[in-house]
## 1
Amino acid sequence: MIEFDGEQARVEHTQPGGGKADHPWWPPLGEGLRPRQPVVVIAGGFGSGKSELALNLCMGLQAGGERVRLVDLDIVKPFFRSRQARGFLAAAGIGLVAPEGELFHSDLPIVLPEIRSLLRQPDGVVVIDVGGDTAGSRVLSSLGDAFVSGGYELLVVLNTSRPFTRDVRGLVEMVRGIAAAGGLVPTGLVANTHLLGETRLELVLEGLGAVRETGALLGIPVRMLACSEKLARRLQPQAVGCPVLELRRVLREERLGGEWPLADGED
Amino acid sequence: MGCIMIFSGSEAAAKPRKLLMKGAEAIGEAAIRAGAKAYFCYPITPQTEVAEYLARRMPEVGGVFLQGESELAVANMLFGAAATGARVFTSTSSPGFSLMAEAMSYIAGAELPVVFINVMRCGPGLGGVLAAQSDYWQATRNSGHGDYRCPVLAPSSVQEAAELTLAAFELADRYRNPVIVLADGMIGQMMEPVMLEGLAAGEPVEKPWATQGCGGREPVVVKSLYLDPQVLERMNRRLAEKYAKMQTDEVQVELYNVRERHDLVVVAYGTMARICKTAIDRLGKEGLQVGLVRPITLFPFPVDAVHSAARHSAAGVVTVELSQGQMIDDVNLALGELGRSAFFGRSGGMVPTPDEVTRVFRDLVKRGAA
């Protein structure tokens, strides 16, 4: 439904110096952000920013010369999924694994058979974007046997502006729920507190604090902080204490215009 | 992960601040703040998140959450629960709303305040799961049989979805009538920052008709069966007066860039109105004056606002919808002697881009000038 054509993306993202690239120019991922395993599963609550994070990781990896595949495993809702950036991904040369034809638009519990073989033999990096909340993560349990022990990262994305993850209690419940539903142990947390265009630096840092506390309680490291490029420039590295992923909005919904979404991090 | 945890307060949760919410979640939370005591539902995309949200929240506030075996059951549960005077509601999407039509007529006939949320998907039939505005006729005329009407409120943002849900409960109590919140799938599914603080129920309305136990008074009966034709006609006349009062007192409309003179006037609601605003802003930079009349209440329809804006428009009026043309009937009625509205619409879950709408408006202005 929300189609992104590569054409539009090419116009918006130009090479430093102004030259147009064949596909969107993207900065390669910094060392601390690079996946430690060939399979990276991105889980989290609805609205935590999983799909944006998955798309940004893919773009950063591809820019660094990796062979990348994005698996859209969101089978719980038919709106606002990473597969809607298929034109954008294709322009960048990133393979998308999602149902085709009219099933592309469905929210049916479809797990494509090639996902299993990708998990067993990744051949590059495989980023998996699963659906929101415990309901969305449940699909992982059906693939449990295909995950190679120790061969994956499970990152749980957390946004403290969402109703049920406003505090540490809610965050802990979310991480535990996702782990239980998916049958996989989370390897890292991603602090991604945001209010779309109304995100302020204080909010990002407040969210990071709560995610840190959650990680300490659960014994899971904070793998990275994600925020818009604009806000990231204002962060004090020593205050953050983990790698920072500078997000570029891919899943914009330009047609809703005006107030939504504004440029990220407009203070 | 199996340790005992001690949490140090939840100041962050208590502090009033904006949250990032889906339209469906904001509707659920607004209903709780309106004092809804019971929510009956049957899941259907694209609004199941209302149910998901309330499955968790209703028990927290001592309310009832009940998933029925079908929409038919749900609508009849609403009848029974509303008869006690409690604030009750449901949410569904187009095919589910059709299934509720019979009970809705009974609810209107028994003059019970019930809020129905319809997050529209594309039809007809099972259609698809994507956003549409093709239940306009069904909502604004009446979905069931008999002489009845319901106020229909159409939000165009997540914040407004919350505010209109609250308003729907107030209207329902004030008029003893079902009220519909008609959102489209985009409003139900998209997330936006929302401020919920300050959303609270108004003064409680006396409900002497409610079946709460006689306690010494005469029994009351909640029903829609009147076999005596004279009695039923009196009842229908009284209902008609109620609907006429809604048409005088309850019209809500947003005017965007509406001035003395226009190159073109647009009528659109919900998600479609937002896309039109983007197009209007772009055309404004080209020096074209395009005004938007956005009905917030679809019934009562803002007849005067449409007529008044259309009086000085070089290229007339265009109605824009996510359907093949339903609201255009009301726009044409409102235009009266001014002529007929042009139409642009997409359906089947297709949502036009601002570019597409901008081109349509520009062409209409050109044709009007010629």
Note: The longest strand of chain A covers residues 152-158.
## 2
Amino acid sequence: MAPTAGARAFNAGELDALLQALRAEGWTLAGPRIRDGAIVYDEIGGAAELPAGWTDEQAPGRYRLRERDDRALFGYAVGPHAWKKYLFPPSERLWTAVRSGRDVGVSEEQAEPPPLAFIGVRACELAAIAVQDRVFLGGERADASYRRRRENVLIVAVQCGEAGGNCFCVSMGTGPAAASGYDIALTELVSGGHRFHARAGSERGARLLSRIETRAATGDDEEAVRALLARAGGRMGRTLDTRGLPQLLQANLEHRRWDEVAGRCLACSNCTLACPTCFCSAQEDVPDLAHARSERWRRWDSCFTGDFSYLHGGSVRASIRSRYRQWLTHKLSAWHEQFGSCGCVGCGRCITWCPVGIDLTEDVAAIRSGAGAAQQERREQDT
Amino acid sequence: MAAALHAAAEHTLPQFMRVRARRQELADTWTLEIDPGGPFEFLPGQFNMLYAFGIGEVPISISGDPARPERLVHTVRAVGRTTQALAALGRGARLGVRGPYGAGWPLDAAPGADVVVLAGGIGLAPLRPALYRLLAERARFGRVSLLYGSRSPQQLLYASELRRWRSRFDIEVEVTVDTAGPEWRGNLGVVTKLLRRSSFDPANSMVLVCGPEVMMRHVATDLAGIGVPPARVFISMERNMKCAVGFCGHCQYGSAFVCRDGPVVPLERLERLLGVREL
């Protein structure tokens, strides 16, 4: 998606006009708002519901909202939600089977999802959506439900002016600048007059911008955007050295670090639920009491649960050590072979929302540094 | 046939089919013959997702004859809730079928070479379609051997068919069991012991393996020891599966999605991983 027009700028007060223009075109708005002490993604009616004047403080196992000393609308990093909850819902019905006599009829779920406009998508989140696009749409087969939802989404990105304490998009090459995959990319400029810099990434994005009061972006606006992105990029809370990472992990499947992490990991699956790219799912069959009708539901699953690897009578991955290893090696190593990119976009959610503060950047660094490098002889000795 | 396979594989919804016959194989194992309502083309080694109404869905390999697509045959060991429900389906009952899925045994990979079919326990079920095809197209292959191991004589799958194959002159059949009473006159011990007794040419053979992972690990080592190139060894893997089309993530083994990249995989690809515990 190449920019289709010169960059524009508009006063912060005009943002609501953009949102209302979207609604007038039939889009339901999904954007950031404050709920339960966090900035979550939810349906919004307009700019008044955005978290004006709030930011988030993040550290391993820690997330707090804090008031800013300005009225920035997008002055935070990322919260516990990812956009995947709209594209790949936490649970959805796939089909319903109904018995009549000895015969059974099956009807597939066909409901058309409402057109959704995502407001405030971060660069790392654009990358995450692109990753899930490759998972669900990039192979020989496309996932029908994901495709229906994905084709009905418009994206308004907002580039980051702040870096969170667990952010490492710079290491992953995914941010803080939004490269592609948006209809409009905004940058919020607070000092020197609260305004937005706007770049269209599609025809419909350009058309929307033409419906509100904008002016051509000036050299000063451009410079302010550059400075803001440079500042955010320079303040990443975390770094991850990705050189040879897939091979590094494959060569260290028996590293002592896995045991150390397993000693802390609760296998609670928070990391996989907060992760914007984790795509594993379970299937559940839900019959009625008469056993005449049964529904097939798909819901998010996690490689940290005991059931996940169940195979005739037990779990293949009985230990937490093996589950954490599966998650990390899949995300950072196998993903490359499967989908042609890393599965991690550097958003830091898994670190923030881990109740015990497990930090994958630390684990990779420990494995890389050779700390505890003595390979454990854990080869199975069969009897 | 490729087009038909592709079209069939597009089904993500189960098609409900009628059980035509059910027969008990072992104490906990039944074979269902299902009426697919039309030819059900598949490749030896492929599997279907079988759905017990309102209970659950599991991957089960196809164990019938690929030359008889009007009969869909599955052998099910009743070990969990869903497999127990499937194994209990009587004549006339309906079950849901999705498939066929996955990569089969590459019977064309080594024309003229000796073929060794090496099975452990219920691992014979996904290999039976390959045996049917090997015997139907016997002239295309060198020596054909079936090496089969089971826990006891009572747990030998397809026993009458084993006897029938044994009486043929164009296939070598060797059977061994771990434990047996005094009435057993056959081989005792693990299936890998049969490798050295068999008459195939290690340097010019293809080996198809299915059984418990422990067994496959030993087989891999022993085959390397007698000089079978790992590129000529194919194993059928088993993992938890929900979707069977590479989206649910459950069946991952290293970078492989067993449902899509397998279940039959060249040993070469997985050899390094077979020794890793809890992968």
Note: Confidence is low (pLDDT under 50) at residues 371-383 of chain A.
